[in-house]
UniProtKB/TrEMBL annotation:
<dbReference type="GO" id="GO:0005634">
    <property type="term" value="C:nucleus"/>
</dbReference>
<keyword id="KW-0539">Nucleus</keyword>
<keyword id="KW-0234">DNA repair</keyword>
<dbReference type="InterPro" id="IPR014857">
    <property type="entry name" value="Nse1_RING_C4HC3-type"/>
</dbReference>
<dbReference type="Pfam" id="PF07574">
    <property type="entry name" value="SMC_Nse1"/>
</dbReference>
<dbReference type="InterPro" id="IPR011513">
    <property type="entry name" value="Nse1"/>
</dbReference>
<dbReference type="InterPro" id="IPR013083">
    <property type="entry name" value="Znf_RING/FYVE/PHD"/>
</dbReference>
<keyword id="KW-0808">Transferase</keyword>
<dbReference type="GO" id="GO:0030915">
    <property type="term" value="C:Smc5-Smc6 complex"/>
</dbReference>
<dbReference type="InterPro" id="IPR036388">
    <property type="entry name" value="WH-like_DNA-bd_sf"/>
</dbReference>
<keyword id="KW-0779">Telomere</keyword>
<feature type="domain" description="RING-type">
    <location>
        <begin position="188"/>
        <end position="229"/>
    </location>
</feature>
<dbReference type="GO" id="GO:0061630">
    <property type="term" value="F:ubiquitin protein ligase activity"/>
</dbReference>
<dbReference type="InterPro" id="IPR001841">
    <property type="entry name" value="Znf_RING"/>
</dbReference>
<dbReference type="Pfam" id="PF08746">
    <property type="entry name" value="zf-RING-like"/>
</dbReference>
<comment type="function">
    <text>RING-type zinc finger-containing E3 ubiquitin ligase that assembles with melanoma antigen protein (MAGE) to catalyze the direct transfer of ubiquitin from E2 ubiquitin-conjugating enzyme to a specific substrate. Involved in maintenance of genome integrity, DNA damage response and DNA repair.</text>
</comment>
<protein>
    <recommendedName>
        <fullName>Non-structural maintenance of chromosomes element 1 homolog</fullName>
        <ecNumber>2.3.2.27</ecNumber>
    </recommendedName>
</protein>
Length: 237
């Protein structure tokens, strides 16, 4: 395996350090960073070899049970790179950062988002969960603060009072979600990764990410489901 033999350089180390401090990075940022790291440390730079550069880092992260993973933003379809901890499930990792009732609120929010039609949960519905917490009741004001923190820590993202899972959360928790929500969690029919915000075929029930829907139907005069060929009744974004 040649990838294993590839040496970590100071350019790789710097890239990793910056990504660690961000937790997640948009693709264009990661490409800029790749270039900058190579220039600073005078390491050979190939503009189209970011993924090779990352896999060199990954081969050295393996013994530490960590990995840089590439994923996609469900909103705009852009690539993102996130540093993922493989040693523990994400929920246990979160347990060191949040109290038990904060975690319970997160889990219940995740239920709402994943079981929803469109991959969003309203703040009203989330705040109504506070009475149902088994660990310890939480006041609505307090819950609003906790939701803010989940957004700052990139577990949730929020738009006009609607919450969904942050790209980082999806990249980190894909396996956890697929195994814990077997009936509800869908993979996108086009890119085969987990789809939280998606459109669903009314006839056969497959789901597609909005950016994948956009791309897939771009060339078609009449949108038909890639699975069952029935007319696609959702509005194309």
């Amino acid at each position: 395996n040649t990838a294993m033999a590839a040496q970590m350089t100071d350019a790789h180390r710097r890239f990793l350090q910056v990504l660690m401090s961000h937790g997640i990075m948009e693709g264009s940022e990661a490409r800029k960073l790749h270039r900058r790291c190579c220039e600073i440390h005078k390491v050979y730079y190939a503009h189209d070899k970011l993924d090779d550069f990352v896999s060199t880092i990954n081969s050295h992260l393996q013994p530490l049970f960590m990995q840089i993973r590439k994923g996609m933003s469900e909103g705009d379809g852009r690539a993102h790179y996130a540093l993922v901890n493989l040693a523990e499930t994400e929920i246990t990792k979160m347990a060191s950062d949040y109290t038990e009732n904060e975690l319970e609120l997160f889990r219940k929010t995740m239920d709402l988002i994943i079981l929803s039609e469109n991959g969003f949960a309203s703040s009203t519905d989330i705040l109504n969960l506070t009475d149902q917490l088994k660990t310890k009741k939480m006041k609505k004001k307090e819950a609003e603060q906790v939701l803010k923190v989940f957004v700052e820590d990139k577990w949730l993202s929020e738009r006009n009072g609607e919450y969904t899972l942050h790209t980082r959360c999806i990249i980190e928790m894909e396996q956890y979600i697929l195994s814990n929500y077997q009936d509800a969690a869908r993979k996108c029919n086009i890119c085969h990764s987990l789809a939280i915000q998606s459109q669903i075929c009314e006839s056969c029930g497959i789901g597609m990410h909005l950016p994948c829907v956009r791309k897939y139907f771009r060339a078609q005069t009449e949108p038909r489901c890639p699975q069952c060929n029935d007319f696609w009744s959702c509005d194309i974004p």
